[in-house]
Amino acid sequence: MAISCPKCGHQIHATRFNKPAGACPGCGSQIIVAAFASLVSAPSDTGAGQRLLAADQASCFYHPNKKAIVPCDNCGRFLCALCSVDFGGRRLCPVCIESGGGGESPGELDSSRILYDKLALFLAIIPTFVTQLIAIFLAIRYWSSPISIPPRGPLRWRWILAVIVALLEIWFIYELIFGDILG
Amino acid sequence: MTKSTEKYRRVPSTVLGTLLRWFDQSSAWLAGDHVLLARRALWIERYNRFYFADIQAVTICRTQTGLVWNVLLGTGAGLLTFGGILSGFPPAVLVWLAIFTLPLIMNILLGPTCSCHVYTAVNTHKLPCFNRLPKAIIFLQTIKPLIAAVQEEVSDEEIAERAPLIPPIRWIAPGAPTPRPKRHYAGQVHLILLVLLFFGAIVSGLQLLSDAELLTWLTVILLIAQLGMSIAAAARQSGTDISSGLRAVTWCAFAHVLVMFVLFLILSVVASPQASERSPEFDLSTEGADDFSTTSAASMMHYMMNLLSMLFSMILCFTGRYLLSSFRDDYRLRRMAARARIRTLDKQET
């Protein structure tokens, strides 16, 4: 891939690679380009998969005319050389990679996650009875489920805070409605 | 590709960057064989992984965003200090001064702004968490040995020699929509904005000579109109072929109007009847300077504001007008050339 200036799109000449900051010939912005070996190395040939020669041979799930060489480590589907993707030491099919590994490898393939603790805290702050109940439900339901891939500290303080805030607000709403009438 | 250790550690940062990381919406983490970019939007976190074996290049390009903020905040803080000196620093001015000064100090301490990009064989990805030069350089220094350990050993000279042989490629995913060409926009909304800036400059100039209430009302109406028009122009210019200079003029006009609006509000607070009632407390005359009262200080600040507004509006107006006319001329010439080319081709065909 050609390296170009992010500001003006002007292609940076290779003589400027791995040098101290220099001016972009297009816009004059100071730019540092750190180029690595994979920029100039040839891409590895993964192979397109062999054609089926005999009828009793196992075929690829996605390409019925191609010979299966390996099963997917996640879903077990037979894959040809084209469909088999080496991912973190495992052989996976493209569908499993796209779907995040089918939940069997937490953190390894996820492309997004819902931070339920933040959502619960947000709902707990909204002063309505329904959102408080949802916040408490989320805290109980997702207490032990993984939250974020990067570490976020040992304490689940958002959960605790969400539950405390929700309970306090429920008590406050209860007092507001029934406290004056009964008391 | 080796198996990921799944033990993520945060990419080292500067001292201030570490202290302020709680406010960051994106963060970068190092694993055994890749960099994980985590971007937060409310309660959803999205991830991008860049494997060391796949990274072809990292670019750090210095931007002017920090400098623009420094100028804007510095101008605001300077004007407020000037007004404060004249009026004896009433609490309202001190609060506004803090609002301008603290971000200014923080912006200076964080260092120059930049944009950091990671290049792989198939795409280019911006790393929004490395938007400050010191932080981005630390990131680059951290990942350089990690990438070098995974990829084959090639000297810098060899990379420089072999890199030009690679033709630039444009990778489009199968089924992905083809990028739309930029649509033409003649700059009508920009022209209205420039006209409003021109009238704003005239009214500011008149206010230097007269204190008529009508002019104050006109200023307010023009400020609101300019604010609305600058937002409309910024929205209109998105995705069009308009020149970068005109884009910059639009954003400068927006910033200018915003600053003037804030200053106008401050002045209205300082010169309010309550402030006048408090004048013995804050009046410099009690401290020995007999010449100024709060009202005179406010009028002095008002005078300065009008003067600056007039000058800045004029500069923006004439620069914008020049850029707009040159952009339109350029477009006309390009169109004529294209028509001539089509006519020649038609003649050749017939």
Can you describe this structure?
The complex is a heterodimer of chains A (183) and B (350). Chain A is of the alpha+beta class. Chain A has helices spanning 94-98, 116-125, 129-141, 157-182, and strands at 22-23, 30-35, 70-71, 78-79, 85-87, 90-92, 112-114. In chain A, a hairpin with a 2-residue loop joins strand 5 (85-87) and strand 6. With 350 residues, chain B is of the alpha+beta class. Chain B has 2 domains: 9-63 and 113-152, PH-domain like, CATH 2.30.29; 185-344, no CATH class. In chain B, the strands form 2 sheets. Chain B has a 4-stranded antiparallel beta sheet, with no helix packed on it. In chain B, strands 5-6-7 form a 3-stranded antiparallel beta sheet, with helices on one face. Chain B is flat, with a radius of gyration of 27 Å. Chains A and B meet through strand 2, strand 7 and helix 2 of A and strand 3, strand 4, strand 5, strand 6 and helix 4 of B. Strand 2 of chain A pairs antiparallel with strand 5 of chain B, so a sheet runs across the interface.
Give the secondary structure arrangement, pairings included.
The complex is a heterodimer of chains A (183) and B (350).
Chain A: E1 22-23, E2 30-35, E3 70-71, E4 78-79, E5 85-87, E6 90-92, H1 94-98, E7 112-114, H2 116-125, H3 129-141, H4 157-182
Antiparallel strand pairs in A: 1-2, 3-4, 5-6
Helix pairs in contact in A: 2-3, 2-4, 3-4
Chain B: E1 9-10, H1 15-19, E2 26-30, E3 34-41, E4 44-51, E5 57-62, H2 65-87, H3 91-110, E6 114-119, E7 124-126, H4 133-150, H5 156-162, H6 188-209, H7 213-236, H8 244-270, H9 273-277, H10 279-282, H11 294-349
Antiparallel strand pairs in B: 1-2, 2-3, 3-4, 5-6, 6-7
Characterize the largest beta sheet of chain B: strand count, sense, and whether it forms a barrel. 4 strands, antiparallel
User: How many domains in all of chain B?
Assistant: 2
Strand order, largest beta sheet of chain A: 1-2
The portion of residues forming beta strands of chain B comes to 5-15%
| Number of structurally distinct domains of chain A | 3
The H/E string of chain B reads EHEEEEHHEEHHHHHHHH
Q: If strands are numbered along the chain, what order do they take across the biggest sheet of chain B?
A: 1-2-3-4
Radius of gyration of chain B, whole Å: 27 Å
Ends of chain B: how far apart? 61 Å
Q: Summarize the main sheet of chain A.
A: 2 strands, antiparallel
Assembly annotation? heterodimer
Order of helices and strands of chain A: EEEEEEHEHHH
Mean pLDDT of chain A: 81
What sort of overall outline of chain B do the alpha carbons produce when their principal axes are compared? flat
- Which overall shape of chain A is indicated by the principal axes computed on the Cα atoms? flat
Structural class of chain B: alpha+beta
Taking pLDDT < 50 over at least 5 consecutive residues as the criterion, the unreliable ranges of chain B are 1-5, 168-172, 278-291
Overall average pLDDT of chain B: 81
Helix fraction of chain A, binned, reads 25-40%
Helix content of chain B: 55-70%
Question: For the largest interface in this structure, which chains are involved and how many residues does each contribute?
Answer: A-B, 50 and 59 residues
